[in-house]
Amino acid sequence: MREFFIGESESGQRLDKFLKKLLPGAPLSLIYKLSRTNRAKIDGKKRENDFRLDAGQSVKIFLSEEEFAEFGRNPFPTVGNNGDGNMGALRGEGDEDGKKGAFEKFRLTGERILFEDPFVLVVNKPAGVNVHPWDHKSDEASLIEAVMDYFQGKFDTLTFRPSLVHRIDRDTSGAVIVAKTKPALDYLLNALQNDRFDKTYAAIVLGFPVPPTGTVKKRLLRIENAKNEAKVRIDEGGQSAITHYQTLKAGIEGKYALLECRIETGRTHQIRVHLASIGTPVLSDRAYGDLKENAFAKRRFWISRQLLHAWKIGFPHPETGKRVSVEAPFEPDMARLLG
Predict the structure, then answer these.
(1) Which of 16, 182, 210, 238 could form a disulfide bond with 221, CB atoms 3.0-4.6 angstroms apart?
(2) Residue 195 burial (C-beta neighbours within 10 Å; 0-12, 13-18, 19+)
């Protein structure tokens, strides 16, 4: 038998949902059976699976140590895209060297932290770093693993670990928000889904858009089982997508422009596809850009990734409701080209 005490991150969960998160390796039949057979007690009492937990309550689970070992939380990275899955810790038992060397490329340090308080962390992600460990076949540290290494388990609870609120592409740099608590994650996801976030990107593009300021409203369709990086195309059968752009600087090296892009929707590759569709692809975009110009930019300016940057982000604070606005400095490759 083990006893667990419910914290704020677990408060409000149904008993069966809590048990499933606590014992992710257990079959659903066992999860449902625990309460029916009186092997999961709340403050010493039998409760049904739909019982809602409150902070401070005691949950006693009557399983053997062997069963806890078999069904308990996987110590390796397993990230849920809506925060309901457990964010995996960087290291589990037997994994002390599992990411050794991966952090030689990226470790979360002070200069990468744009904002932090007890509820939220905002990180300036460098280009070439995955936000999740499974996004590409790589043994390099992902952003969430670097965050877990930085926190060292400080904000972990029984069923929750700090979670990304949103994501950006591997080769896109810039601001990414991490929720430190489950209530903060729930609040920020709700705010994101209800258009209470402001996201502004900076892009260096090939050519100059006409008009210099405008809005692209073109529906985007995700291509299933795409065999290359071009996963999205303009298609009337796709989802609505709106991108507002403004030219901030034209004539860079005679043929490039710096654009500010604000998005009303958050579709996959939205800015990249929209800008390419109006004849100004993001420079060095391997999927939607100009391959000849990409090769020139690599030789001339040592640019090897799409020059797209999550520049500014604004969101309501999950505790106070006050507006938080954060700006991420440009990466060296963009800053160098801008002069």
Answers:
(1) 238
(2) exposed
